[in-house]
Structures are given as C-alpha cells and as structure tokens.
Design brief:
This protein is mainly beta and 438 residues long. The chain is 7% helix and 30% strand. It has one domain: Neuraminidase (6 Propeller), CATH 2.120.10.30.
C-alpha cells in the first residue's frame, strides 16, 4: 500500500445542476448512423461550451469571450483559431492507422478496444472491469475483457460531462459536472441501481474547466479537481483547487489551491504525495504559458493561478506585486498548450526497470496554437522530491508535423496488473494497449 502523505495534517473546512438521471443500456452495438443521429443534443451542448467549431468567431462571439476575461487573440499569430471537436461517431478499426503509432524499441501497441465515441478517463475494478468516462457525449462505458476480446456497454448516459471515474472497495464512483453516483458491488451485480451522492459533495455547477478527474489516494480519501471556470480570472473560494473527501462526501479538505485546470493526478509510489497536471492559460501567445506537472508536498499549497504561471511567468492581465511570491513552482513543464491530462506513476514489472516510478502523461494536444503540439504520451522521470525532471515523448505518431494535422488524441493512461499500459484516444473512441518484450 502506498503511504498516505497527508494523513496527519490538519483539516481545512470549506449547486446542484439539473440534468437527466443516468440511463442504463444494453451493450453498445450501435450503427454509425444511429449514433450520429442520437448526438444532435450533444453537439448542441458542445457548441455552447466551446463556441463555433468550423469558422472564426463573429463580432458578437468575440465580445462574449472577451467579457469572460483573458480572450486576447491579438497576442497570437492567427486570432481565428478555434477548438478541434472530437469525433463522436463510431470509428471502425480500419480507419485507425495503428501502424503510424511509434514507441521505443521493444514496445508494441495494439488496438485493445474500440467503438466508444469520446472515451476518456479510465478506472479498473478488482475483477478486471474497465470503466471510462466521457465529456460531450455524456456516457460512461463499461468494458469487459473476455479472454483476448473486449465487449462493452453503455452503463450510464445523458449526464453532463461524466469525466470522473474511480473505483474502491467494490464500488464504482461516477462524477459529472456536479452530480455524483456510487454503484455498489457493480462487478458482482452489473444491473445495480446507483446511489446518488450529489447533495453530500456540494460541487459547484459551473461547466467551464469542471469536467472532473477523481481518484482515491493512499489515505482512502476521494481526491477531486474543481477547476477555475474561466481562461483567466480570480476564481471564487470554491474553485481553482484540488479537494479530498471521505468516500461518502463528508470531511472535505482543500489539498491544493491556485490550480487552473487539472485533469489528471496520481500519488507517488514511495512518498504517497499527490502529483498533478495543470493546463496553462490561453491567449498569452503560441509558446506559453506551458502546461505543468506539479507536486503537493504539504496541504494547501498555492500553485499560482491566476497571477503566476509555469516557472515564474507573471500574468499579463491579472497583475499584482510579486505575483510569484509564495507560489509552488512545477516539477516540470509539459509544453505549450499541450493539453497534459491523465497521468500515472508506473509500478509494473513488464517495462524495463528504468521506467519504474516514472510517470506516463497523456497530452491531448493543442487547440489554439498555430503549430500543433502534443498529441502523444510523454514519460517523465524525476526524483521523489521532484528534482531533475526530464520529459521524453514515449508514444507518438498521432500528429503529422509536416502537415500540421492530427488523427488521434490521447487523454488518459492506466496500468494493468501485468504491467502493460492502456491509453485512451478520445478522437477515435479507442483504447490502445502498450506491451514490452525483450
């Protein structure tokens, strides 16, 4: 068992949003047409959340974005950059160019599961079941490994961005923007009805940067990200932080403050300390501020947002005297607008020994950068106290640098008991498995 780094540190004390209840479905064997027709509402939601996808924003949209703060397109070469929407229809294996994925010598990549539009964050049950959350499509997938082949079903749907997935003590926890559900004993009873815990967790209803990442720590507390609901702003006291709770939603404590948008964290195998990724702000330029990999060495540390970014860059819009004073600087920079998301410490025996206790980080890729960056899985090696960090691309090939175009977007990583590594690809609704053999 990993050590509980904050078990004996003092506590720091501290709405509900209407959405459809989870709907249970049979195995998701839909045709592409049926899925496409069923996603009209999801695409409408996507437009509301991130704005126009296929054309530059008009004057009205520019005014709306600027009114929310931090929208300064004149600071970048192309002010008309817009997000790249993930594909939300079934992608057949024949359209996934697996041969383009590159890994170091001795490693191998296989298509482990597919047909799950928008698949993102993953968790594994004690009996081997994998669950995966999504954002725009509003689903939670359940994946079973049947001796070499995988089947899946839609466990829940019509939720608002149920990105957060965690498993402990036989129970599955699903967290949407501000709704929380627990599926008791789900591996033994797959049709169990969920227990809603929304009232207990008291999560804010804001959508922006609040698709959750959740994980149980070595202290058996449930750690939860509550992002800053903006590109750049002064967040309220309940935003811009990572919290932890008792599993029933009680005993909330703030673990880290000054966090913009973390969508991935894990606990060091030796120290039990929380390490997390954080996405840098937009519209300060193509080359930064860079995304971060951070380490929490004591409760309540402040990580800079909105005043100080990366390795000590003052914000251009939110200014104050000595903006980086008292800020905990990152262990490593993960690249400009890289979309550094899901991360896990590697503790397996399959990969070479020099990978043990290193970190695999999925970088989903940039959206408002003229030259695309990321779209890979990086490996980070650092000492347990966060020194001498080195970031190296590990799984690449999703980005054609010559054409400046991508075909896949890694979002999360998950180690299996045999030491192999799963990688979810939101763009293609697929999960890859990375193995190693001498």
């Amino acid at each position: 068992m990993r050590p509980a780094a904050y078990a004996h540190q003092p506590l720091s004390s501290e709405n509900n949003m209407n959405s459809h209840p989870p709907k249970f479905a049979t195995r998701a064997l839909f045709s592409t047409l049926a899925v496409a027709l069923g996603l009209t509402g999801a695409y409408a939601l996507a437009q509301q959340l991130v704005g126009p996808q296929n054309k530059p924003p008009d004057d009205k949209e520019v005014a709306v974005r600027k009114s929310k703060g931090g929208y300064v397109p004149e600071r970048v070469k192309n002010p008309n950059l817009s997000p790249h929407p993930a594909r939300m229809t079934l992608t057949p294996p024949s359209e996934i160019p697996l041969d383009k994925i590159k890994v170091p010598k001795g490693f191998k990549v296989e298509l482990w599961a597919h047909g799950m539009p928008g698949v993102r964050m993953m968790a594994r049950g004690s009996q081997g079941t994998i669950w995966a959350g999504t954002r725009i499509i509003g689903r939670v997938y359940e994946i079973k490994d049947k001796g070499g082949s995988r089947t899946h079903r839609v466990l829940a749907e019509k939720l608002v961005q149920p990105n957060g997935i965690a498993f402990q003590g036989g129970n599955l926890y699903v967290m949407a923007i501000n709704r929380v559900f627990r599926y008791d004993g789900i591996e033994s009873n797959p049709d169990v009805k969920p227990v809603e815990l929304t009232a207990q967790f008291k999560l804010p209803p804001d959508v922006h940067h609040n698709w959750k990442f959740i994980a149980f720590g070595p202290d058996s507390r449930l750690y939860v990200q509550v992002g800053s609901p903006c590109n750049i702003c002064e967040p309220s006291p309940e935003h811009g932080q990572i919290r932890r709770y008792v599993a029933d939603g009680s005993g909330m404590e703030v673990v880290a403050r000054g966090v913009r948008n973390s969508v991935g964290f894990d606990f060091h195998p030796q120290t039990g300390e929380l390490w997390f990724t954080d996405n840098g702000r937009d519209w300060m330029g193509d080359n930064g501020p860079e995304d971060e990999l951070n380490r929490v060495s004591k409760m309540g540390q402040f990580f800079g947002f909105p005043y100080c970014h990366a390795q000590g860059i003052p914000d251009l819009d939110f200014k104050k005297k000595d903006p980086c004073k008292g800020v905990t600087l990152p262990v490593a920079l993960m690249g400009p607008h890289a979309g550094a998301l899901g991360m896990r410490f590697y503790t397996g025996a399959m990969f070479p020994k020099d990978y043990v206790n290193s970190i695999f980080v999925a970088r989903r890729g940039s959206w408002n950068r003229n030259v695309q960056f990321g779209y890979d899985v990086a490996n980070v090696r650092a000492t347990p106290d966060g020194k001498n960090a080195k970031v190296t691309p590990f799984l690449t090939g999703f980005l054609d640098r010559k054409e400046n175009k991508f075909w896949g977007r890694p979002v999360d990583v998950l180690q299996l008991p045999d030491g192999s590594l799963l990688v979810s690809d939101e763009q293609n609704g697929a999960i890859y498995r990375v193995t190693y053999q001498k």
